[in-house]
């Protein structure tokens, strides 16, 4: 399976520091960009994760770096041959343990982070989500949000509620992880982003730009042109159609 990955993490136009962190094929990325194409080995493990730090100052930055680093170590150590339900159970264990470590490191400051994205294990792909960062899939010219925002706006279906009020995050009490097993097929494009993108440009615009073949930098630029009120980190994973 041939994979193309394009990733950018940008501070945006307003914030003084970037609390986002991406985990791209085992590499942590902040205030940087990356593009690569490769043949994913059979049973290979690939990550495309975005974690959006919260809490202000440098504490959200610490949380997102911890979350992505701990996930990379978790995936490397995950034994081969697990069934889908066993992988899900291991992810839930990772979520509990990582949440505890972030809460310990926070020492009462309230730091935390979201966590979402795509990874592969064996012949299976999984989408994970904690919080309100998003993972999308473009398939057959249709953009679908594959994650549900863990926000009060989404839970109450009330657009008058500020979008940044979330009820689930790493570093919060009773944190949980959504896990969706999925398949990657030729032609798929997965987009993983912090809310610095999705709060600035709507899904219709994201869909149109992706269908036009835009790269990730163009999406980041569009978010910044719309105000760039937050850090914006975007990772695109394309499953290339082999001739």
Largest sheet: 7 strands, antiparallel
Q: Would you report the number of β strands? A: 13
Low-confidence stretches: none
SSE ordering = EEEEEHHEEEEEHEEHHHE
Shape: globular
What does this structure look like?
With 243 residues, the protein is α+β, with helices and mostly antiparallel strands. Helix content is 29%, strand content 31%. It has six helices and 13 strands. Strands 2, 3, 5, 6, 7, 8 and 11 form a seven-stranded antiparallel β-sheet that branches. Strand 7 (115-121) and strand 8 (124-130) form a beta hairpin. Helix 1 packs antiparallel against helix 2 (84-106). It is globular, with a radius of gyration of 17 Å. The termini are close together.
What is this structure, in a nutshell?
This protein has 243 residues and is an alpha+beta fold.
